[in-house]
Design brief:
Layout lengths: L2 E5 L6 H15 L3 E7 L20 H35 L6 E6 L2 H8 L3 E7 L8 H15 L4 E4 L8 E6 L3 H12 L7 E7 L3 H15 L5 E7 L3 H12 L4 E4 L5 H7 L3 H7 L4 E4 L1
Helix pairs in contact: 1-2, 3-4, 4-9
């Protein structure tokens, strides 16, 4: 059965990732799995060191290096298990009866690809490291995941806040209408206030498309608001988020439009990094 999969790490975003995953699991009425990936670049597995050391090196040095390697891997496994156990207890306290935990070695993308068939919704946190700014971190971690996986992804930021409304960035294309229908059919966002925003140069055409979209989403929403903007996509979305106090931004892989060019272009990570609320990205 497809599940909600939450990527847990040792960052400050882990509690929010867990909480949003719990919220999604309860809304979708599906199981929750908490995943921690032991990245081989950070937690190398035990390796054969004999080729690194010269033939004349004493045997005890080889044994010492192997022991250090083994201890490092053991500590990484223990830390990973502690992270997962803490997240599991948090999910149980929030009402999830039997959340599962999983550990995997390898890269994040490779691990998620291997599990993709069982994922209904991926929940992953946006965060920076001490050495990288947010855009760099997002570019190296989230963007490959979003581009590679075909399942929906909920990218969290900040503390958990149960969404009461959401903003759907719309462009009127066939794939946009299909994505909107998916939102309408899913229990994830049912009963929330839906804001439909379109960015384009022809106000009348955009208004007509927005009215059509409103009819699609209205049966599943508590309220529907439509808006048109002519400015660039990122500032338009950001300003609207601030003005309307948006809790969740919903975007999809659309047709050939300014929104698609923005979403899939070189500034993808900028939108994820600058968003004032979590993003639900549909593929």
């Amino acid at each position: 059965m497809p599940e909600v999969l939450a990527c847990i790490d040792g960052s400050t975003t882990a509690p929010a990732v867990c909480d949003y995953a719990v919220w999604a699991s309860q809304r979708l009425q599906t199981s929750l799995t908490l995943l921690h990936v032991l990245d081989k670049t950070q937690y190398p597995q035990r390796s054969d060191l004999s080729g690194i050391i010269g033939l004349g090196t004493r045997e005890h040095l080889l044994e010492e290096l192997a022991s250090v390697d083994q201890q490092h891997s053991k500590r990484a496994l223990e830390q990973s298990q502690q992270m997962l156990e803490a997240a599991q207890q948090r999910a149980i306290q929030a009402g999830i009866e039997s959340p599962l935990t999983r550990q995997r070695h390898g890269s994040l993308v490779e691990s998620l690809v291997a599990l993709e068939e069982s994922i209904r919704l991926l929940v992953i946190g946006r965060h920076s490291t001490t050495n990288d700014n947010i855009a760099e971190h997002v570019g190296s971690q989230l963007e490959p995941v979003i581009r590679t996986l075909q399942c929906p992804a909920l990218v969290t930021c900040g503390d958990f806040l149960a969404p009461q409304n959401y903003l759907f960035a719309y462009d009127g294309s066939f794939t946009a209408r299909k994505a909107l229908q998916r939102v309408a059919d899913s229990p994830l966002l049912q009963g929330l206030h839906c804001h439909l925003l379109m960015v384009g140069s022809d106000r009348a055409a955009c208004q007509a498309l927005l009215e059509e979209a409103a009819e699609v989403i209205r049966p599943s929403a508590s309220e529907v608001s439509i808006a048109w903007r002519e400015a660039d996509v990122e500032p338009s979305i950001r300003t609207y988020q601030l003005q309307q106090k948006i809790d969740l931004l919903v975007m999809g892989a659309y047709g050939h439009s300014r929104i698609r060019q923005f979403l899939l272009g070189s500034t993808t990570s900028q939108l994820i990094a600058s968003s004032l609320c979590p993003l639900l990205i549909l593929r």
